[in-house]
Amino acid sequence: MSQSGQAIELPITTDSTPEEKYSARQQKKAMRLQDAKTKLSSPWASGLAIIIAILWTIPTFGLLVTSFRPVSDIQNSGWWTFFANPGFTIDNYSNALSNSAGGLGNFFLNSFVIVLPAVVIPITLALLAAYAFAWIDFKGRDAIFVAIFALQIVPLQVALIPLQTLFVNAGLQNSFWPVWIAHTIFGMPLAIFLLHNFMKEVPRSIVEAARVDGAGHVKIFFVVLMPLLIPAIAAFGIFQFLWVWNDLLVATVFAPSPNLRPITAAIAELSGSKGSQWELLSAGAFISIIVPLAVFIGLQRYFVRGLLAGGVKG
Amino acid sequence: MDWFLQPTSVTDKLLVMVVAIVLFVAIMGLILWAIDRPKVPTWVVVTGFVGPVLAALAVGLLWPAIKTAIQSFQVSQAVLGPNGKPVIDRTTGQRSSELVFSLDNYSRVFSDAGFQKVLINTALWVLLVPILATAIGLIYAVLVDRTRFEKFAKALVFLPMAISMVGASIIWKFVYEYRQAGSPQIGLANQLLVWLGLEPYQFLITEPWNTFFLIIVMIWIQAGFAMTVLSAAIKAVPDDIIEAAQLDGATGFKLFRKVTVPTIRPAVVVVLTTIAMGTLKAFDVVRTMTGGQFGTSVVANEFYTQSFRQGQGGVGVGAALAVILFIIVIPVIAYNVRQMRLVEETR
């Protein structure tokens, strides 16, 4: 969002020279910083911020520490004793990945196989549709767009059983196809909405100029718009990736067999059947978390951008 | 063709994945190639761009939703012959049944004590999670705004967003882990109680408070989302408004309450509705932590239990639950569409 930059410039009249503008801006910045300092020097405020930060970090940290402790330690003492009495092992991870109880390696592969088409296909389809909604004039365009936006809010639950019947009738059950198709359909309304927002931000003149040069819609889409939309595509790609990788509902309904089950469903299952084996659960949880976390941390900037495009408009 | 429908080995799985993507690209390429000629009427071009999406949404979302709505008004009833006795199907030897229109599924949901509990729990979730997550997100965003550690501090709270709800549930199940009094606690929450000289507590089992302990998990997940969006909104508040208020003598908390909050109200509303929608539909936390037992079930979870665990009898009730879910979000849809229209107008 470039709004913060604009906001700083707002009160400055347009007829001032660039230098004046610059110094006025500096002054303002300094003032606001000072203001922030006076506001936050209150020990109560900092204390509250630190408490929230701790509450949001400790639970994960505790489980992470646990995942590296030997089984006997986990069962007989809290993870916080680790620092007084350290014992380190990676057995939990190798057990969770390979042994018969967990065997998460296979589910990890399933997650990977599910996630790639379930990200590529909806984004491509949504990009094309968003292009049409943004740059082609046709009858009923606004009505259809609003209808798609509204579909975004239909709870998935409403569609599950009829869809399952459909897949069974088509002979697709017990394969990855229902999961891919379901994720494609369920992800599309939001994808179209967000990508349309980005697409509208491309200056009209660029598209018009291409049109005057005789470029058709397909050419405008690929040659003119695609390069400008890379950040948006990345943003939504991360969205869809996290959503598919972290999904439990679609997977439990459409990929119930152990052969297809993704890692989230496997962990949920583990939690039900081996609820007290924290050495398996903690390591398993981190194996399932590691990929989305890496994607998220690496591409955080884009993710936040995508979030804000849908979030704070208006 | 086994690998295509029932892949078992690693190579088969990867192969079918690649084939799916290639197939998709080929089909889309064909469509685009077909419409990309001079003098093609606009409707053909539009169909090429929007058609696949509309078809998918119609078949995969609209039609199922209608079908579920119809299902929710149907119950299976034995066919009675002229003599008033159930007709036996000769081929299968079973009683024949037919689907008849009925409000039974809904009356069951609203009258049965168990389902009433589910509805009350859902109401608690949908009220508490958005309000508390937004409040915490907003307070935190203000507190860390323009501090030296802003980026790092925000990342800490935002991180749970990337973790799956299943992962978050495991993390919190461990916090709530219960051991009998006297034995060493391994869950942090109970250890804190013990340190305070209290008895350890069955956080996930003791009704009715267990619902609130599950709600805390969802708040923990969602606060980061609220914080990020609201932080951006706060940064976008124009300086002149702040300065004018400061000239009028507003400082600190008063400035926040009288100027910042009203200015970012649209963002707050969007955050509240988004979280409310997410909360209403989510079933992961309840499913993973308690499986809906001990009086913690919510509509989204009960839907799954009824539809996929209770056999034929549950499908109608499940459908009714899904429709109830949908009806609760209709006001949200209406509000969001209106909001979007307003934004479009100001563009």
Automatic annotation (TrEMBL), chain A:
<feature type="transmembrane region" description="Helical">
    <location>
        <begin position="143"/>
        <end position="167"/>
    </location>
</feature>
<dbReference type="GO" id="GO:0005886">
    <property type="term" value="C:plasma membrane"/>
</dbReference>
<dbReference type="GO" id="GO:0055085">
    <property type="term" value="P:transmembrane transport"/>
</dbReference>
<protein>
    <submittedName>
        <fullName>Carbohydrate ABC transporter permease</fullName>
    </submittedName>
</protein>
<feature type="transmembrane region" description="Helical">
    <location>
        <begin position="280"/>
        <end position="299"/>
    </location>
</feature>
<dbReference type="InterPro" id="IPR000515">
    <property type="entry name" value="MetI-like"/>
</dbReference>
<feature type="domain" description="ABC transmembrane type-1">
    <location>
        <begin position="108"/>
        <end position="299"/>
    </location>
</feature>
<dbReference type="Pfam" id="PF00528">
    <property type="entry name" value="BPD_transp_1"/>
</dbReference>
<keyword id="KW-0813">Transport</keyword>
<keyword id="KW-0472">Membrane</keyword>
<feature type="transmembrane region" description="Helical">
    <location>
        <begin position="107"/>
        <end position="136"/>
    </location>
</feature>
<dbReference type="InterPro" id="IPR035906">
    <property type="entry name" value="MetI-like_sf"/>
</dbReference>
<feature type="region of interest" description="Disordered">
    <location>
        <begin position="1"/>
        <end position="20"/>
    </location>
</feature>
<comment type="similarity">
    <text>Belongs to the binding-protein-dependent transport system permease family.</text>
</comment>
<keyword id="KW-0812">Transmembrane</keyword>
<keyword id="KW-1133">Transmembrane helix</keyword>
<feature type="transmembrane region" description="Helical">
    <location>
        <begin position="44"/>
        <end position="65"/>
    </location>
</feature>
<feature type="transmembrane region" description="Helical">
    <location>
        <begin position="220"/>
        <end position="245"/>
    </location>
</feature>
<feature type="transmembrane region" description="Helical">
    <location>
        <begin position="179"/>
        <end position="199"/>
    </location>
</feature>
<keyword id="KW-1003">Cell membrane</keyword>
From TrEMBL, chain B:
<keyword id="KW-0812">Transmembrane</keyword>
<feature type="transmembrane region" description="Helical">
    <location>
        <begin position="315"/>
        <end position="337"/>
    </location>
</feature>
<feature type="transmembrane region" description="Helical">
    <location>
        <begin position="264"/>
        <end position="283"/>
    </location>
</feature>
<feature type="transmembrane region" description="Helical">
    <location>
        <begin position="123"/>
        <end position="143"/>
    </location>
</feature>
<keyword id="KW-0813">Transport</keyword>
<dbReference type="InterPro" id="IPR035906">
    <property type="entry name" value="MetI-like_sf"/>
</dbReference>
<dbReference type="GO" id="GO:0005886">
    <property type="term" value="C:plasma membrane"/>
</dbReference>
<dbReference type="Pfam" id="PF00528">
    <property type="entry name" value="BPD_transp_1"/>
</dbReference>
<feature type="transmembrane region" description="Helical">
    <location>
        <begin position="155"/>
        <end position="175"/>
    </location>
</feature>
<keyword id="KW-1003">Cell membrane</keyword>
<dbReference type="InterPro" id="IPR050809">
    <property type="entry name" value="UgpAE/MalFG_permease"/>
</dbReference>
<feature type="domain" description="ABC transmembrane type-1">
    <location>
        <begin position="119"/>
        <end position="336"/>
    </location>
</feature>
<keyword id="KW-1133">Transmembrane helix</keyword>
<dbReference type="InterPro" id="IPR000515">
    <property type="entry name" value="MetI-like"/>
</dbReference>
<comment type="similarity">
    <text>Belongs to the binding-protein-dependent transport system permease family.</text>
</comment>
<dbReference type="GO" id="GO:0055085">
    <property type="term" value="P:transmembrane transport"/>
</dbReference>
<keyword id="KW-0472">Membrane</keyword>
<feature type="transmembrane region" description="Helical">
    <location>
        <begin position="14"/>
        <end position="35"/>
    </location>
</feature>
<feature type="transmembrane region" description="Helical">
    <location>
        <begin position="212"/>
        <end position="234"/>
    </location>
</feature>
<feature type="transmembrane region" description="Helical">
    <location>
        <begin position="42"/>
        <end position="66"/>
    </location>
</feature>
<protein>
    <submittedName>
        <fullName>Sugar ABC transporter permease</fullName>
    </submittedName>
</protein>
